[in-house]
Write a structure and sequence with these properties.
The complex is a heterodimer. Chain A has helices spanning about 5-20, 30-35, 45-55, 75-85, 95, 100-110, 115-125, 240-255, 260, 265-275, 285-315, 325-345, 360-370, 380-395, and strands at about 130-135, 150-155, 155-165, 175-180, 190-200, 205-210, 220-230, 235. Chain A is of the alpha+beta class. Chain A has 3 domains: about 5-95, Butyryl-Coa Dehydrogenase, subunit A, domain 1; about 130-240, Butyryl-CoA Dehydrogenase, subunit A, domain 2 (Beta Barrel); about 255-395, Butyryl-CoA Dehydrogenase, subunit A, domain 3 (Up-down Bundle). A 4-stranded mixed beta sheet of chain A has the order 1-4-5-8. The longest helix of chain A is centred in the C-terminal third of the chain and has 27 residues, at about 285-315. The radius of gyration of chain A is 23 Å and the shape is globular. By secondary structure, chain B is of the alpha+beta class. Chain B folds into 3 domains: about 5-120, Orthogonal Bundle (Butyryl-Coa Dehydrogenase, subunit A, domain 1), CATH 1.10.540; about 125-215, Butyryl-CoA Dehydrogenase, subunit A, domain 2, CATH 2.40.110.10; about 225-370, Up-down Bundle (Butyryl-CoA Dehydrogenase, subunit A, domain 3), CATH 1.20.140. In chain B, about 55% of the residues lie in helices and about 15% in strands. Chain B contains 12 helices and 9 strands. A 4-stranded antiparallel beta sheet of chain B has the order 2-3-7-6, with no helix packed on it. In chain B, strands 1-4-5 form a 3-stranded mixed beta sheet. Chain B has a two-stranded antiparallel sheet with strand order 8-9. In chain B, helix 1 packs parallel to helix 4, helix 8 (about 270-300) runs antiparallel to helix 9 and helix 9 (about 305-330) packs antiparallel against helix 11 (about 340-355). The chains are: A alpha+beta, B alpha+beta.
Chain lengths: ~400, ~375
């Protein structure tokens, strides 16, 4: 059977499976379960749908079957996504697992022991366990390797003390993957290890952080004699920096798609026509805004063409590469520019915080604009990405700055 | 870089080795120093024709290889890296495209094989003022008993000095028509321009130039045909521009890794490292736009106009910035004529103006997008 015919067979299997398993009551409800509000409970049909996905391995479709996935190729996984979308269905599992599906899982697949894979991957693939990541600390942001949280070998467990910050979803997660210092005498990148431990224990407390955009998923997380199992060090001891670099590449990769979501250009120009009005040639009444909007839409289109090009070059098997730094910075500037333009187009209506004088999408635009400022800070800031590009891709010499 | 076919890879590799051996930028320097009137070396042109590159978008029935625009783009990119001067682009791509889209059967039969062999140099004469303005064609083609009488001036015609034939856009009543005109026609005079970038441009004046009715190109009526031709011309020059910009980037990166100041390699300074990172990012993004336009043309996509404007705009913006940074980062040496940076800067501005600059294409992109 040719590759193409095999893919068509797979598609028709998925179609049949969807008619049998996707509850009609959930058609058009994707936004409810796939939005940023993590608190919509999975009950009734939604719960049954999640279980059906998990049963078939479609929650984490590219993972091996032995660990709860469906063992699909990247091409098959894309076809699956398209079939889900065509049926009005959706896969809520990645979102339900916090950092589990996109970051912890792929890293466990690469660095985990067989025991770790068996214990940790299936619950993620089934959407049953939410993970957070303990990376940044108050004094270790862009300079992540300066972190101070310590894990001490206590014989049959690791004892963890310190504080993390920007731990997304820490207050609702069951597990945490944290970068901790296991050797205080080594050079700063050489004394780190990556430890997995449960959040539901007396030594862990969390405090949500309120941001400029209002409530946020971010927390401060405190460890006071928290415990991690001896079998839960991911990768070799004191080689956590290598593990986390890989993990962050997965993070960047998951953040490169921001622009295509935001690049439904027609709607932004439509919106501009409504708010700003047009002249007798059908051009926006604000000629300066018109040209800046055009520049933005061209940048957005170029970004999505670049994602397509890189996918085509990888021939359907996208690798996590240093190119992720380029894409992350590009996605960030496209998304941030879009948010700024949206506000500008809305004029005074783009300044609402709450209340009935503003439409929902106007308030969302303001919140989104503010929240989006984090894009060029998290996951390695814009400047850190540029360091990676200049050193790792272009091979420029190390800076002489100490640090 | 797009995923290439085996044939494309072979042609690209052939172009790389030929350019490096026979037509490096030092050959362009020699040509400039010689004060060439045509703007290209006959030997260079002969080699290009012998390799069959002039026939890449010419149908096989007319003596070409019909390998498509993506393939042509790959060659122009490699030639652009070393600023190779030749009528390959103006005749092999633009002239051949115009004939394909608008030529009568007789015109195709007469001219396309001659373009493919290099015997004829056919170039497009569109603009009449200092800026690209395909909507403002004023040259007149007045109907006579036996054909048309042409009056007007065409400016900045690429390879206009060496062209054997011109495809001329003119106004005939309410219509814009295209006419295929022999460059030796009576009443046609050309002034070869001495431009900063030393390429072969000319201003061409038509004073009561009488042409036969058979000079009228069949599908030459209307803006749509002209736009289709111009879009392919834009996508082609964008490849050359990407080549020039990527060479400028490579020269700059090399300098960052070898030049020492304050006792260290200047590439270790974060200000320059970040600038290089931003330029590289922009180059990767630009490449996607340039390749997408060529692929859209080959696939017959309805997005061709939008993507060609996107391509010319993005590559224009990148080449502008890259050519300035080429000089800036090289410092004093970049200002000297002995160093090649100046050639790239000069070429950058000339091709920016060709078939519409960033302003033209941003406006067009907005219009095509409905706002």
């Amino acid at each position: 059977m040719t590759e193409h015919a095999a893919l068509e067979t797979f598609r028709s299997e998925v179609k049949t499976w969807l008619t049998q398993n996707f509850p009609k009551s959930l058609v058009g409800k994707a936004a409810l379960y796939m939005g940023f509000d993590h608190n919509v409970p999975m009950e009734g049909d939604a719960l049954r749908w999640r279980q059906a996905l998990a049963e078939r391995g479609f929650g984490a479709p590219t993972w091996p079957k032995a660990y709860g996935g469906a063992g699909l190729s990247a091409i098959e996984a894309r076809a699956l996504g398209e079939e889900l979308a065509a049926a009005g269905a959706f896969n809520p599992i990645p979102l339900l697992t916090g950092m589990g599906s996109t970051m912890v899982g792929p890293t466990v697949l690469e660095y985990g022991t067989e025991d770790q894979k068996l214990r940790h991957l299936s619950p993620i693939a089934r959407g049953e366990v939410r993970w957070c990541l303990g990376l940044s600390e108050p004094n270790a942001g862009s300079d992540l390797a300066a972190l101070a949280t310590k894990a001490v070998n206590k014989g049959d467990y690791w004892e963890v003390n310190g504080q993390k910050i920007w731990t997304s979803g820490a207050d609702i997660s069951q597990w945490c993957g944290a970068l901790v210092r296991t050797d205080s005498n080594a050079a700063k990148r050489d004394g780190l290890s990556f430890l997995l431990f449960t959040m539901d224990q007396p030594g862990v407390t969390t405090r949500p952080i309120r941001l400029i955009a209002g409530a946020s998923p971010f927390c401060e997380t405190f460890f006071n004699d928290a415990r991690g199992d001896k079998t839960d060090l991911l990768g070799p001891i004191n080689e956590g920096w290598t593990v986390v670099k890989r993990l962050l590449q997965h993070e960047r990769q998951s953040q490169t798609g921001a622009a295509p979501i935001a690049s439904t250009g027609a709607s932004l120009s439509q919106m501009a026509k409504q708010y700003v009005g047009v002249n007798d040639r059908g051009e926006l009444n604000d000629p300066d805004l018109r040209l800046r909007l055009a520049s933005h839409l061209m940048d957005a289109r170029t970004h999505s063409l670049t994602l397509q090009r890189i996918a085509a070059e990888a021939r359907g098997n996208p690798k996590v590469t240093a190119a992720a730094s380029i894409l992350k910075n590009s996605a960030t500037s496209v998304a941030q520019t879009r948010a700024e333009l949206t506000l500008e187009i809305m004029g005074h209506q783009g300044l609402g915080w709450e209340g009935s004088a503003f439409a929902t999408d106007e308030i969302e635009a303001v919140r989104g604009w503010l929240a989006g400022k984090a894009m060029s800070i998290y996951g390695g800031s814009y400047e850190v990405q540029n360091n990676i590009i200049s050193k790792n891709i272009l091979g420029l010499p190390e800076t002489t700055q100490k640090g | 870089m797009a995923v290439l076919t085996e044939e494309q890879t072979i042609l690209r590799d052939q172009a790389v080795s030929w350019v490096n051996a026979d037509a490096p930028v030092s050959a362009f320097r020699k040509l400039r120093d010689s004060g060439s009137i045509t703007g290209f070396a006959p030997d260079t042109w002969k080699s290009i024709c012998e390799m069959g590159w002039t026939g890449i978008v010419v149908p096989e029935a007319h003596g070409g290889s019909d390998l498509g625009y993506m393939t042509f783009g790959l060659l122009l990119e490699e030639l652009g890296k070393q600023l190779v001067a030749s009528p390959l682009y103006a005749s092999g791509l633009v002239g051949a495209t115009a004939l394909r889209f608008a030529g009568t059967d007789a015109q195709k039969q007469n001219c396309l094989p001659a373009i493919a062999s290099g015997e004829a140099i056919v170039t497009l004469a569109i603009d009449e003022g200092p800026r690209h303005a395909p909507d403002a064609i004023a040259m007149s083609a007045e109907k006579t008993g036996s054909g048309y009488r042409l009056n007007g001036t065409k400016s900045f015609v690429i390879e206009g000095g060496s062209a054997t034939h011109l495809i001329v856009a003119a106004r005939s009543g309410q219509d814009i028509v295209l006419l295929l005109v022999d460059a030796s026609a009576t009443g046609l005079s050309r002034e070869v321009l001495k431009t900063a970038d030393s390429r072969g441009y000319a201003n061409i004046t038509f004073k009561n130039v009488d042409v036969a009715a058979t000079a009228l190109m069949s599908a030459g009526h209307g803006k749509a045909t002209l736009d289709a031709i111009l879009d392919r011309a834009r996508a082609g020059i964008a490849s050359e521009m990407l080549g020039a910009a990527s060479a400028a980037f490579d020269m700059t990166l090399e300098y960052l890794k070898t030049r020492k100041q304050f006792g260290q390699l200047i590439g270790s300074f974060q200000a320059l490292g970040h600038r290089a990172a931003e330029l590289y990012t922009e180059m990767e993004l630009t490449r996607s736009a340039v390749e997408a336009a060529l692929q859209a043309i080959d696939a017959g996509s309805k997005d061709v106009p939008l993507l060609c404007s996107l391509s010319k705009y993005k590559v224009g913006a990148f080449l502008f910035r890259m050519s300035n940074q080429l000089i800036q980062i090289h410092g004093g040496i970049g200002m000297t004529d002995e160093f090649n940076a100046g050639f790239y800067l000069k070429r950058a501005r000339a091709v920016e103006a060709l078939y519409g600059g960033q302003g033209f294409h941003r406006d067009r992109y907005a219009r095509l997008s409905g706002f």
